Amino acid sequence: MTKKFPLVSIVTPTYNQAEYLAETIESVLAQDYPNIEYIVLDDGSTDETSEILKKYSGNIRYERHANMGQARTLNKGWAMSSGTVLGYLSSDDILYPGAIRKLVEILERDESIVCSFPDADLIDSQSRVVKKNICQPFNLGDLIIRQECYIGPGALFRRTSFEAVGGWKTELKLAPDREFWMRLAAHGRFEMCRDVLAGYRMHSNSISYKDVSELAASEYLWVLDQYFANALVPVDIASRKSESYGYAKLILARNCFRSGFLKRGWALYQEACSLHPPLRNFNIKIKIIRNVISKPVRIALSTFRSLIKS
User: Fold this and answer.
1) Contact 45, 68 (CB under 8 A)
2) pLDDT in tens, 160-207
3) Which of 104, 111, 252, 254 maximizes the CB count within 10 A of its CB?
4) What is the mean pLDDT of residues 122-134?
5) pLDDT digits (tens, 9 = 90+) for 137-163
6) What is the pTM of this model?
7) What whole-number distance in Å separates Cα of residue 18 and Cα of residue 26?
8) If DSSP codes are grouped into helix, strand and coil, which group holds residue 171?
9) Looking at domain 8-207, does it have CATH number 3.90.550.10?
């Protein structure tokens, strides 16, 4: 193809997501962009994933391998790919019409942009919109200091930048994406497309719903350790190192509260406040309570809707 339509390689790692996989695949195949390489990798699924993938033989490139996790699977897919523009789409998320075309246009108009991503909807298990406009423009300070990742489904990035920073860290389970964005941001700008071009699915089996142990969540601290060990940390972010660790501890505290470990959660919250005293603010406490309560409410609503559908 001409330079106007650089090859875009999209990788979907999937593990026991047969219920949503076909809709994800269809959303990519329906794109109006003329030069897409679509790779779907079955990470050892035990459900009907293989049967679904067979239906798309000839339209997508797919393989199955023994379970090795999301990060390793994505790295494998990107290594297999040929595109000058790379991306990924989780096997329960969807792209809306025109997504890839609009995001490539952003990359093509400015070489200083290394990543483009769209606004997105939060959708439920039946693809009904739960909340609109859930993404925000990229902010490196918020990502590192406040642990806020505003990038949802559909992000595209340049292969040259990807090869310069390396793939996802395979030792990470909860934060491989945000750690990757931290490294990629050192190579150029991130641009958000204001159009809503993707659906980010929340359901009872998604990572966002699952209880996370303190040990697992501690990888947020590991990510900060790695980042601040870098000599190229911007001065304005380096000066707020304690604040960043305070917010990371706050996430650990919230997860403990959600899991019912109230005493440990309170201890972690106190550690967070010692690192960044403004976290004692009343509004922060209200936000923690709201986040803790909202999880079981969303699970109950998702389960109720599923029961109604069946």
Assistant:
1) no
2) 999 999 999 999 988 899 999 999 999 999 999 999 999 999 876 665
3) 252
4) 93
5) 999 999 999 989 999 999 999 999 999
6) 0.88
7) 13
8) coil
9) yes
Q: What average pLDDT does the structure give for the chain? A: 90
- C-alpha span between 220 and 35 (Å, rounded): 37
User: Of 32-36, 88-92, 166-170, 251-255, where does mean pLDDT reach its minimum?
Assistant: 251-255
Q: How many residues does the chain have?
A: 310
Residues 6+ apart with CB under 8 A from 22: 52, 55
For residue 99, what are its two tokens? 């997504």
Contact by Cβ (8 Å): 62, 39:
yes
Structure letter (DSSP) for residue 46:
-
Helix (H, G, I), strand (E, B) or coil at 52: helix
Sequence-separated (6 or more) residues with CB below 8 Å from residue 234: 140
- Domains of the chain, by residue range, sit at 8-207, 211-309
Structure-token pair, residue 19: 């219920």
CA dist 44 → 14, 49, 68, 94, 196 (Å): 8, 9, 8, 22, 32
200, β-bridge pairs? 122
